[in-house]
Amino acid sequence: MLNNNVQTFIACDSSYDDAKIVLFGAGFDGTTSFRPGTRFGPSAIRNDSFGIETYSPYQDKDMVDYSYFDSGDLELPFGSVTRTIDDISVRSDRILSDGKVPFMIGGEHLVTLGSVKAVSDKFSDLYIIHFDAHADLRDDYLGQKLSHACVLRRCHEIVGDGHIFQFGIRSGDRDEFVFADEHTEMHRFNFDGLEETVEKLKGKKVYFTLDLDVLDPSVFPGTGTPEAGGVTFDELRKAVTLVCSELDIVGCDVNELSPVYDQSGVSTAVACKIIREMLLAMS
Description:
alpha/beta; Arginase, Chain A; 8-stranded parallel β-sheet; 10 strands; globular
């Protein structure tokens, strides 16, 4: 008997009822400020995930021993930022209402706002861990308050002071760093202080957002706004494993892969492996 050809992230083909973690793609790049292309991130990640193994020698775990469901990409209206955010919120809310964890694959970083809105509606005392090269704390970018350059500022308006912990930040305008000094806990350049943050947030509900350009562009050139001076793959792998294994992650996302800028496919392979490690650490 022939079945429908439905592409999923590797080993994420369990039934929805059995899965505790549900993936979905949000391939949107309508507010990208430099080089577009992240709309192609989710499909590239799904396709290239079959180039890696389901088994992680780092954690001695295998994805086939757990249940994950990939619900596919949202069909997002590229002409409407607000509708895009709303559609992402609806998908996240549906997953949360069924007692599962939404795992979103972007897309540009603004997609995080839609998921954070849904998660914060369910968990009022929500904390955010943010890995990124960029602060993303502008109040507006070229007059627009809904931009990937403003996404953590908008998230701050939801969760408030003392609830956002930023790591790897090495780029932003002066006002963003001033804002961070007053309203978020920012750890510049690397993951120094992450272990202490994890200890502080144990027992809390945590949303984890990972902008892959936290990596040095020598490791991850396939992104729209590469920023020199980033972390190594192994530093990021250890950091995401710590966060995802030790904390109560109630929602998460991985974003800002723009595969067209790395024809070698290495950047996509890096994204796939990081997602695998996150899924296994959360299991």
